[in-house]
Amino acid sequence: MNFTEFENSILDISQELPVHPTKEIPQRNTEEIDKIIFHCTAQPWNVWEVTDYDLKPNHIDEEGCPCITYSYFIEKDGTVYKCLEPEAKSWHVGKWNATSLGFCINFEALPETFPPKVQFQKAVFLAAYLSIKFKVETKNVLGHRELLETGFYYENGEKILRKECPGISINLDKFRMEVEIVKSKWLSQKLDVI
Q: Which of 55, 37, 43 has its CA nearest to residue 145?
């Protein structure tokens, strides 16, 4: 699959997903995006169930979030959804929201489980696609657990994980290597990708 084929396979449901009835979706300048953040649901929830959770009182805000907390979502069967326009500043990683774009996979991330192969491959493609589109270096494609404060903190000099997201079984260094391979392939095809 090349860049254009992947881009054309993304289903845009951004106008179909419900939003909070009273909260405005904060906006941002997409030129400030310098990180792509990989998440998992940690529940067996599809994109509609995640949206429902996000809009109600939840772990992020007692009154609910303005919209789904992820810009893109990948179902277990590999279906990729665009959930928000990139200008929408979703609430997925605290102080990093303004400068990051988040995507999520429908994956419970139970110990010693791994996402379905097709879903994981689409996560690699999506991360490569987004990092090309928004000019984000591959080293800045991160798992939620890799972000200081929202993903981990230090206590007495020891790193303590707050999150295992996108799943402790996912080797994020290997994931980034796979993303870089796809990016290199797509960019070598000299497609008009930007």
A: 37
Tell me the per-residue pLDDT of 67-110, one tens digit each, with 9 for 90 and over. Answer: 999 999 999 999 999 999 999 999 999 999 999 999 999 999 98
Q: What is the pTM of this model?
A: 0.95
Q: Is position 50 within any domain?
A: yes
In a domain, residue 124? The reply is: yes
Domain range enclosing 14 = 3-188
DSSP string covering 88-108: B--SSSGGGGGGEEEEEE---
| DSSP designation for 146 | G
User: What crossing angle do the helices spanning 172-188 and 117-133 adopt, rounded to 10°?
Assistant: 60
Phi, psi of 90, deg, nearest 5: -80, 165
194 belongs to a structural domain: no
Asked whether the beta carbons of 47 and 154 are under 8 A apart, the reply is no
Phi, psi of 118 (to 5 degrees): -65, -35
Structural domain total, the chain: 1
Q: Which residues contact 167 (CB under 8 A, 6 or more apart)?
A: 40, 107, 109, 113, 114, 115
Please check whether residue 103 is in contact with residue 127, taking contact to mean a CB–CB distance below 8 angstroms.
yes
Task: Summarize pLDDT for 16-37 with one digit per residue, the tens.
Answer: 999 999 999 999 999 999 999 9
- Domain of residue 80, CATH code: 3.40.80.10
